[in-house]
């Protein structure tokens, strides 16, 4: 038993289906402690899944963003600090 015993486990479960093709789908099941937590997880996952900016962005754009972040943390010798 996880969480409240009066709430069925089906109401506290979040299932994520993923895969690169329609025939090879895998599933991950998360069991939350309450119905409200499961609803919050579902809402946040759907916001992430339907974020058009993240889904349609070019890989080169992500690389440019990473490069920009790295160049802003260079030390005076032009090296990336070990702690960064």
Automatic annotation (TrEMBL):
- InterPro entries, per database record: PLC-beta_PH
What Pfam families would the database entry show? PH_14
Q: Which domain of life is it from?
A: Eukaryota
Report the residue ranges that make up the PLC-beta PH domain in this protein: 5-56
Q: What is this protein called?
A: PLC-beta PH domain-containing protein
Identify the species of origin: Mytilus galloprovincialis
């Amino acid at each position: 038993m996880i969480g409240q015993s009066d709430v069925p486990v089906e109401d506290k479960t979040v299932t994520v289906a993923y895969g690169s093709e329609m025939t090879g789908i895998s599933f991950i099941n998360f069991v939350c402690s309450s119905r409200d937590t499961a609803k919050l997880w579902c809402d946040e996952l759907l916001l992430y899944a339907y974020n058009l900016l993240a889904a349609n962005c070019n890989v080169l754009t992500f690389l440019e963003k990473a490069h920009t972040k790295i160049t802003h943390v260079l030390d005076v010798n032009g090296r990336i600090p070990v702690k960064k």
